[in-house]
Inverse folding.
């Protein structure tokens, strides 16, 4: 059981998703620019695809009943792709190519590898079945059918399908606009010299990359200094241009953790402290009408909480059709001897022992380490109040699936 002041992950996600309005703005983009975007409307098939019966192979179109033993069949026509054929003359065959329209009167196509060409015509050296090697009209798409639903994320596959229906431009939801605010007087931007007690701001770049992978638009990146009023002013300014504010750090219980305090003072803090490891001090609220997702400050915690908590929220805001994560059940190749009341997300990767897959964990799971995330390919889930021994089955999610 989670401690009373820790919110179980499922309850936290239910709350987050109930407070995740879909972006309302729509824009029309060229099909070539639609990759990764979310369709804002249903797409129905305007015409059959393919528009007519066509050949699946290079060969000869003919009518099966015209085959008579070893008697050659004369070739009466040649049908290149892109030309409308004339009806097939009875008792003859037509040279045909992949994608060429089937002439009226033909009921089969024999691939050229099964044909012997003679002076008197062609000899078919294979059994022929009616309809063989013919792609029927509407076989891929039938006019009026729903081809792609609103909320579909456009991949190369969907780009090709839209092109096959003649769509040159598509209506998509505008990108979710996100502000990234890092907290801490100790933070220095990469490229600058470090002074005593200073560290480089790695969280900003981790979040920039994650948000780019998630199809968001970053509209603001700033560092919040450890002052209450400065924190409040920057949050309010970010709220004017962003659909979502993501902060790193400043949500724990220290005297310099001002993000949580500002949200509390504004009456906008609705979630704090989750029963996950790493990442207990996750906060969710709003300021100036804009949602704020407050992530912990440790780099490992930022990655894990964004993937586990932030991505489901962002997917809902983006209007993407829901798709449950499947993960894999894989035997563990590590040990956890001390059970935690929090659900643990272990930075891990799939490996092979003999011929069998296992999930291996990075030896040091400190939330301050990013090297573990670079070694890992995903997260292994250790349920609450559970120890792990080698061979125990665990659910493993790849980073690719968590970001999909």
């Amino acid at each position: 059981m989670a401690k009373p002041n820790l919110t179980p992950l499922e309850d936290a996600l239910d709350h987050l998703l109930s407070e995740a309005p879909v972006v309302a703005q729509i824009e029309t983009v060229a099909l070539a620019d639609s990759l990764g975007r979310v369709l804002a409307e249903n797409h129905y098939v305007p015409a059959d695809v393919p528009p007519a019966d066509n050949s699946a192979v290079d060969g000869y179109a003919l009518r099966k009943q015209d085959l008579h033993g070893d008697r050659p069949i004369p070739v009466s026509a040649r049908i290149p792709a892109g030309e409308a054929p004339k009806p097939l003359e009875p008792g003859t065959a037509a040279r045909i190519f992949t994608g060429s329209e089937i002439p009226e009167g033909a009921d089969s196509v024999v691939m050229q590898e099964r044909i012997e060409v003679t002076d008197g015509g062609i000899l078919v050296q294979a059994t022929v079945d009616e309809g063989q090697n013919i792609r029927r009209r509407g076989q891929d798409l039938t006019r009026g059918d729903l081809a792609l639903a609103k909320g579909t994320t456009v991949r190369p596959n969907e780009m090709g399908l839209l092109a096959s229906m003649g769509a040159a431009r598509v209506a998509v939801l505008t990108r979710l606009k996100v502000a990234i605010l890092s907290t801490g007087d100790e933070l220095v931007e990469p490229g600058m010299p470090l002074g005593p007690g200073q560290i480089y701001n790695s969280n900003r770049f981790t979040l920039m990359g994650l948000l780019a992978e998630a199809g968001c638009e970053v509209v603001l990146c700033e560092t919040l200094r450890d002052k209450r009023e400065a924190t409040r002013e920057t949050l309010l300014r970010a709220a004017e241009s962003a659909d979502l504010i993501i902060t790193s750090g400043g949500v724990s219980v220290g005297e310099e953790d001002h993000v949580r305090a500002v949200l509390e003072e504004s009456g906008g803090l609705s979630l704090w402290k989750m029963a996950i490891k790493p990442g207990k001090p996750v906060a969710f609220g709003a300021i100036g009408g804009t949602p704020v997702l407050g992530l912990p400050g440790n780099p490992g915690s930022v990655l894990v909480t964004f993937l586990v908590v932030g991505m489901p929220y962002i997917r809902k805001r983006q209007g993407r059709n829901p798709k449950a994560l499947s993960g894999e059940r894989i035997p563990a190749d590590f040990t956890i001897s001390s059970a935690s009341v929090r659900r643990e997300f272990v930075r891990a990767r799939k490996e092979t022992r003999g011929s069998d897959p296992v999930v291996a964990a990075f030896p040091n799971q400190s939330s301050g380490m990013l090297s573990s995330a670079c070694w890992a390919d995903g997260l292994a889930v250790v349920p609450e109040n559970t120890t792990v021994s080698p061979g125990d089955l665990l659910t493993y999610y790849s980073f690719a699936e968590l970001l999909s």
Summary: The chain has a mean pLDDT of 93.
